[in-house]
């Protein structure tokens, strides 16, 4: 069966209105969609409009038009996922990270939704292959994994399961890219998808460097934020090293520096994640942050993130 044309997507159901669901809701509203959100928790339902409104100044700074109030007129929140998916053209599932719960939700949503609608799950760690087992139309399920907070970070990782159709994965990539996200396709299901694996690889060595006394927590952080981290907002590790090879590009980089890099690889470590390291890392970040609260740090991160996003892709180009 062919899938709904992208231009006919008007209403998005957001299942689960917690951290990720509320942020996704704000982003979908900023794209002009009607959003039907669901959450069985009355506290979450009460909090959701406020969480969406809190994202709005940031979305406005990135080019969203209209006020939070105007956007919230297109937002509704329901107790049941079955109410939320009524009339939905796309579903973004953000329920708690429990396989049986997601299997049940997804099979019920699948039964209620026309077969030409794609369903995306925000799951960080579950496989589409495992989540789609109870679905009558498993071919329309993809993992559509955002990076927190989804209303700001462009990356969406699209992963199909064993029964997902190529068409559904392509549809999801095209859908997000048409609205200013940068969707990438993960061709094989692996734990952590791509970006979290890369983060995990880096943090493994970062923790090892602290544990083995090579540098302090703060200096390891500075080695990234004041160094390669600045370039990584512009280009990834392959393009960065393509430039590292000078006019010879990646070919020269490979011939010239891979032998040295292999000796570094041989020396990379695995930290022992014990209570002593926990204390070392907690003490290290406590010293690093000084008197800044977590809320201060998050606000600083988001403000600078918006500035970076506007430099990399001006609001006018994104809207
Ligand atoms: N937090 C992150 O950084 C992050 C990043 C990317 C992806 N994710 C993924 O997003 C999903 C949601 O994570 P979160 O951090 O928003 O969790 P959360 O705990 O903040 O929110 C989950 C929400 O789901 C609601 N819920 C419980 N049962 C439900 C049901 N049957 N139907 C609908 N909603 C239900 C809860 O009441 C809660 O409000 C997870 O799969 C997680 O792996 C999280």
Automatic annotation (TrEMBL):
GO terms for biological process: fatty acid metabolic process. Pfam families: 3HCDH, 3HCDH_N. It comes from the Bacteria. Keywords: Oxidoreductase. Signal peptide: none annotated. One of its GO terms (molecular function) is oxidoreductase activity, acting on the CH-OH group of donors, NAD or NADP as acceptor. This is 3-hydroxyacyl-CoA dehydrogenase.
């Amino acid at each position: 069966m062919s899938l709904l044309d992208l231009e006919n997507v008007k209403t998005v159901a957001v299942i689960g209105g917690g951290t990720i669901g509320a942020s996704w809701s704000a982003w979908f509203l900023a794209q002009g969609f009607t959003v039907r959100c669901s959450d069985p928790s009355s506290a979450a339902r009460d909090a959701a409009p406020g969480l969406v409104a809190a994202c709005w100044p940031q979305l406005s700074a990135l080019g969203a038009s209209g006020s939070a109030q105007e956007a919230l007129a297109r937002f509704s929140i329901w107790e049941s996922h079955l109410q939320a998916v009524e009339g939905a053209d796309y579903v973004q599932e953000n329920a708690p990270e429990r396989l049986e719960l997601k299997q049940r939700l997804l099979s019920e949503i699948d039964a209620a939704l026309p077969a030409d609608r794609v369903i995306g799950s925000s799951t960080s760690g579950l496989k589409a292959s495992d989540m789609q087992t109870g679905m009558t139309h498993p071919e329309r399920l993809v993992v559509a994994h955002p990076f927190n907070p989804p209303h700001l970070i462009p990356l969406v990782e699209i992963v199909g399961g064993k029964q997902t159709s190529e068409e559904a994965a392509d549809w999801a990539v095209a859908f997000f890219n048409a609205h200013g996200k940068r969707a990438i396709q993960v061709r094989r299901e692996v734990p952590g998808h791509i970006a979290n694996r890369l983060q995990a690889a880096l943090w493994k060595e970062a923790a090892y460097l602290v544990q083995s006394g090579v540098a302090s927590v703060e200096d390891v952080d500075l080695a990234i934020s004041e160094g390669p981290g600045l370039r990584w907002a512009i280009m990834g590790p392959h393009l960065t090293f393509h430039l590292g090879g000078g006019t010879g590009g990646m070919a020269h980089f490979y011939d010239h520096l891979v032998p040295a890099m292999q000796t570094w690889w041989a020396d990379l470590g695995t930290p022992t994640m014990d209570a002593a390291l926990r204390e070392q890392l907690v003490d290290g970040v406590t010293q690093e942050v000084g008197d800044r609260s977590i809320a201060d740090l998050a606000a600083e991160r988001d403000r600078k993130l918006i500035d970076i996003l506007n430099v990399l892709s001006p609001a006018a180009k994104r809207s």
